[in-house]
Specification:
Chain B: Pfam families: Trm112p. The complex is a heterodimer of chains A (458) and B (124). Chain A is α/β, with parallel strands linked by helices. Chain A has 14 helices and 14 strands. Chain A is elongated and about 70 Å long. In chain B, strand 3 (107-111) and strand 4 form a beta hairpin. Classes of the chains: A alpha/beta (458), B alpha+beta (124).
Chain lengths: 458, 124
């Protein structure tokens, strides 16, 4: 067996952000590329940014890194230990045939030192490099700090962020840098530069993560039934999908709603969902957005199947509270409604639980087999229990990751996969064991005062 | 609205309607836009298309000239067919007009390229 085809150990260095999502994202990407990945999830400390994984090949690591938002960098792991000494011993046992090509006199390299939860000085870094065992690391190439062919990194872990770092690191790693993940895309898709946004536009990092959880790939057909300004679909299109969205908000889809940017009085005439795709040169993958009611499933031919459904259903926190009386803003709104008198029917209340049950029923019918539904479920943290999750006989729960919004409420990113064909009249409907929103709407829960803050003051 | 999307839509959302397919198109403004040609995506989509509905829609918008009446056998390798399909499904955009329910004649307006499929409470 050649060295390159042997399973090898890789070190993934995660960003210290959205740590609740990191394992779910990693597993989704591994399954997207059919990469065998064995994780002992129960043993994983999410607050530790270093994760050692066995992968069949370096190509697999490169594929995962071509999509991940949550892994900062990937390394071929040469040595690890609970101390520098243990790491050196481990390094001595690493395959020499794997190291040899990088020691060649014809190449250039540099060694970096990184530490987590402790700042170490430049002097200390140089000292760490000088201490590395030269009888094992027989580098003969030239050091090139600016543009080396190979980069090696010594990493030291000093515990969770916010804890007092110990004198000696808790873990030490040495590896060959392979590549970085896609964290630069977060600024590329920065919302401040986005042409058309609204109050609930999803932040670009999270929408790219959602697209990863949904296993969106080249030529996928992806649907968002609550499309808004299309932010989730921009991410899906970036991953190669063709996209369709619907929204019940006529004024928003026609960019006639109140602008969301401070100091902006009126929306520009060229603001539209489509313009957001043009901005990133993804317009060829924009199919359409429609004004439609997501609860009317018969809008779609029965044989239409999406590869993924990604959505952030409305749960009514950021919609401004209604006010009594008429002011300038109301006048503006009513003049808009005069402009489209017949097109804006009176919107009825859509009970939050019904939104989710409808969404699961729709997904069971209109997802491809093994297609995924990824959506946000807002919950009250104190009351939430597993029984609040809607379920469907055709859909299997893949991941349930919490994003804490404040001490009272969070939203959970739910990933489900279609594992069974839907049959009409088969009694296959979505259900929820315990309705989380029965006693109070999410908005009421969000704004309900609690004793928590008082307790903290005491 | 592109014709690929039109091919997916029905008016069976209207109360009592069961044969709401395909929707007629009354075009008022139709544009032809450049879209990158991607034969792999088309090959994925074409088996799920109702091709007679594609032909009818193309005729409604006046762009049916030279369009094959049936899906070509071995279409995945038939570049000529795929290019025709690409043009009709992805490049023709109904910007202004109406979609018409074939059973009731109910019109769904398209403005700025966005169809409005909302119903009044009593219609749903």
């Amino acid at each position: 067996m050649s060295a390159s085809s042997r399973t090898c150990r890789y070190l993934l260095y995660f960003a210290n952000e959205h740590i609740e999502f990191k394992i779910a994202e990693l597993k989704s990407l591994a399954s997207l590329y059919n990469i065998k990945l064995d994780l002992h999830e129960a043993c994983i400390d999410k607050k530790d940014p270093f994760l050692v994984v066995d992968l069949p090949s370096e190509d697999g690591a490169i594929q995962i890194m071509s999509r991940t938002l949550l892994v900062r960098s990937a390394y071929e792991l040469w040595g690890q230990g609970k101390s520098h000494e243990e790491m050196y011993r481990n390094l001595a046992a690493f395959h020499t045939d794997r190291m040899a090509p990088y020691f060649s006199a014809n190449t250039t390299f540099k060694i970096m030192v990184e530490s987590f939860n402790k700042t170490i000085t430049q002097k200390e870094k140089v000292q760490r490099i000088e201490e590395l065992p030269q009888d094992i690391l027989k580098f003969e190439g030239k050091v090139n700090l600016k543009n080396p062919v190979h980069i090696f990194t010594l990493m030291e872990y000093y515990g969770h962020v916010g804890t007092t770092p110990p004198d000696k690191p808790l873990a030490v790693y040495f590896g060959r840098w392979i590549c970085d993940g896609q964290r630069d895309k977060i600024s590329y898709f920065n919302l401040q530069k986005r042409h058309f946004i609204a109050n609930t536009t999803m932040d670009p990092g999270l929408s790219l993560i959602m697209s990863n959880l949904a296993r969106v790939k080249q030529n996928s057909l992806v649907f968002d039934p609550f499309v808004g300004t299309g932010s989730l679909l921009v991410s899906a299109a970036h991953h190669g999908a063709y996209i369709i969205g619907t929204d019940i908000d006529y004024l928003l889809l026609h960019a006639k709603s109140k602008p969301s940017r401070a100091r902006q009085k009126k929306r520009a005439s060229d603001e539209s969902v489509q313009a957001n795709f043009g901005q990133y040169r993804l317009e060829s993958q924009y199919l359409d957005v429609l004004v439609a009611d997501a609860s009317c499933h018969k809008l779609w031919r029965p044989m239409i199947h999406f590869d993924a459904i990604i959505t952030d259903p409305p749960y009514g926190i950021r919609e401004g509270a209604k006010r009594v009386g008429k002011d300038a803003e109301d006048e503006e709104k009513s003049s808009l409604q005069d402009e489209f008198p017949k097109r804006i029917p009176r919107l009825r209340d859509y009970h939050l639980s019904d939104i989710f049950l409808d969404l699961l029923d729709f997904s069971a019918k209109h997802l491809q087999m093994h297609g995924r539904l990824v959506y946000w479920l807002p919950v009250d943290r104190l009351d939430y229990k597993e029984e609040n999750l809607p379920s469907h006989p055709c859909l299997q729960l893949i991941a349930n990751c919490e994003q804490v919004l404040n001490s009272k409420v969070s939203r959970r990113l739910i990933t489900m996969e279609k594992v069974r064909e839907f049959q009409e009249n088969g009694g296959m409907t979505a259900r929820v064991e315990v309705d989380h929103y029965q006693d109070a709407t999410f908005r009421e829960r969000y704004f309900r005062p609690t004793n928590l803050t008082n307790d903290e003051d005491n | 609205m592109k014709l690929i999307t039109h091919n997916m839509l029905t008016s069976n959302i209207i109360k009592g309607v069961t044969k709401g397919y395909p929707l007629g198109i009354i075009p008022r403004k139709v544009e032809v836009k450049d879209v990158d040609y991607n034969p792999e995506f088309l090959a994925r989509m074409i088996p799920n298309m109702d091709w007679s509905a594609v032909c009818k829609a193309a005729k409604d918008v006046g762009h049916d000239e030279g369009l094959p009446k049936e899906i070509a056998p071995n279409f995945t390798e038939n570049d000529e067919f795929l290019k025709a399909a690409h043009h009709v499904l992805l490049e023709i955009d109904v910007v202004e007009g109406d979609l018409v329910c074939p059973e009731t004649g109910r019109k769904f307006p398209v403005s700025n390229g966005v169809p409005n499929m909302l119903l009044k409470e009593e219609e749903a």
